Amino acid sequence: MEAESEITYLKQVDLFAGLSDADIQELSNVARKRTFRSGEVIFHRDDPGQVLYIIKEGKVKICLISPEGQEISLVVFGKGEYFGELALLDGLGRSTDAIALEKVECYTLQRSDFHKAIMKNPLIAIKVLEVLSKRLRNTDQQVEDLIFLDVYGRVAKKLLELANTHGVKVETGIRIDVRLTQQELASMVGASRESVNKVLGYFTDKQFISTDKHRITLHRLADLKRRIY
């Protein structure tokens, strides 16, 4: 029953879309299920990169942490998304840290098995290239935002992005289904926690957003969009 569930799930992952049942079965045979606690480090920057992670449940934060402990969050991945592919392709160490934001269940593929899958199904390589290109464009956009947007604009834009990728419709708006502390949000927009606290207070007073137990709900999306620039 577990094997059937695994095969069904892998079929729904965009990376493996178009693969035959036999190919999915082959991947399922070599995939391993892993679980990480909330806050657990999945891998550190510069660790050997031998494993691809495919998220079944939970959220994972990809970030950079300086030797002094300063953190910049690059992206949050959720169900159906994958990470760790860069090191599998170039054979070098991990380029970032990966940390579970909540309990995470995922499937893992070893580098050798992933390479076999690519050789047999070149479409996988094309999909990986598409995702890498998208992530590179997003990184370029983050650099541009740091240069041209003030903290209010960066926070507004990040909240809208998170609502788009991890949002759940509720009666009063869209709730971001990621548990975010002010410090985590600050690391995502390249600002201090104090600055983000001030911005969130302003947005709350304006009734653009509301917060409850580290969950943020967006109520007036149009007003947030206007506040970006």
Main attributes of the structure:
alpha+beta; Jelly Rolls; Arc Repressor Mutant, subunit A; 4-stranded antiparallel beta sheet; 9 helices; 47% helix
Task: Write the topology of this structure.
Blueprint: H1 2-12, H2 21-30, E1 32-36, E2 41-43, E3 51-57, E4 60-65, E5 71-77, E6 82-83, H3 85-90, E7 97-100, E8 104-110, H4 111-120, H5 122-148, H6 151-166, E9 167-170, E10 173-176, H7 182-189, H8 193-205, E11 209-212, E12 215-218, H9 221-226
Antiparallel strand pairs: 1-8, 2-7, 3-6, 3-8, 4-5, 4-7, 9-10, 10-12, 11-12
GO molecular function, one term: DNA binding
Organism: Thermosporothrix hazakensis
Domain Cyclic nucleotide-binding: 15-135
Structure description:
By secondary structure, this protein is α+β, with helices and mostly antiparallel strands. The chain has two domains: 1-132, Jelly Rolls (Sandwich), CATH 2.60.120; 148-224, Winged helix-like DNA-binding domain superfamily/Winged helix DNA-binding domain (Arc Repressor Mutant, subunit A, Orthogonal Bundle), CATH 1.10.10. The chain is 47% helix and 25% strand. The chain has a four-stranded antiparallel beta sheet. Strands 2-7-4-5 form a four-stranded antiparallel beta sheet. The chain has a four-stranded antiparallel beta sheet with strand order 9-10-12-11. β9 (167-170) and β10 form a beta hairpin. α1 crosses α2 (21-30) and α7 crosses α8. The longest helix is centred in the middle third of the chain and has 27 residues, at 122-148. The model has no long low-confidence stretch (mean pLDDT 91).
